[in-house]
Amino acid sequence: MSLESDLARVRGLGSAKHGTHTFWHQRITAIALIPLSLWFVTGLICVMDATHAEAVAWIKAPHVTTLLIALIAALLYHVKIGMQEVFEDYIHAEWLKISSRICLNLGTALCGLVSIVAILKISFGTF
Amino acid sequence: MSSRPLSPHLQIYRPQLTSILSITHRGTGIFLSLGVVVLAYWLVAIAGGEGSYATGRECLSSVPGKLFLAAWSFSFYFHLCNGIRHLFWDAGIGFELKTVYASGYTVVATSLVMTALTWVYAFGGAQ
Question: Is residue A94 within 8 angstroms of chain B, CB to CB?
Fold first, then answer.
């Protein structure tokens, strides 16, 4: 007979070792991304044929700057969780699984940082 | 590991709407993840000034660029609609077989219509 409680037994199980934490964060970012991504794609369609000055003016509006940064943060986190799930399902060699996870984490973090710095430069810079 | 039973391989099963939509959700998710890099590039191009913005616009309005945007927009609408379907499932709603098929066909129809509307709106006036 084990003296471990049921909770202690299941904690840390699963391929991500974090149980439902990742599942829950994937859902939260998904819910955030419904309005954010719809808003962004609508905006994108409107600025598709815009001149550089018009595109800059769009991003410079404080609410657009804010929502764009929120979108980038939620999106990159959602991408990180989703792609990690794909890697965990299809990559079976442990060393490859870990190295691809490291690349994914650093890659999505870098991609998010680059995007946010670009948004801030557009928002606060002069052209 | 080797002594554990294996479930039948994927080729054994007849493709069904449910399984096709499931793998398409994953496929579009992977493809949309790549789009994150394009999004970062687009923001950096705007931040870089008029010259880099013009280059970026040229890239995206070329034939491969437009094909990418077309595939990306369908992937976006599909992943969005099917993602909402998943969120309902997470809440325990819509698991009856009839409902699963009805929501599946709704997802396909909605994402096709929204993609078409996007392209009519984005390129109908511009060309």
Answer: no
Domains of chain A (ranges plus CATH)? Answer: 20-124 (1.20.1300.10)
Q: Which of A38, A75, A121 sits opposite B36 (nearest CB)?
A: A75
User: Between B87, B118, B122, which is nearest A30 by CB?
Assistant: B87
- Residue of chain B whose Cα is closest to the Cα of A40: B39
CA dist A33 and B72 (Å) reads 16
Tell whether the torsion through CA atoms of B14, B17, B20 and B26 is positive or negative. negative
pLDDT, tens digit (0-9, with 9 covering 90-100), for A51-81: 999 999 999 999 999 999 999 999 999 999 9
Return the biggest CA–CA distance within chain B: 63
**Domain B25-124, CATH class in plain words:** mainly alpha
User: How many pairs of residues across A and B have Cβ atoms under 8 Å apart?
Assistant: 71
Rounded CA-CA distance A108/A95 in Å is 20
ipTM: 0.89
**Which of A115, A119, A127 is nearest residue B49 as measured by Cβ atoms?**
A127
Give the pTM.
Answer: 0.88
- B76 touching A, CB under 8 A? yes
Sequence ranges of the domains in chain B:
25-124
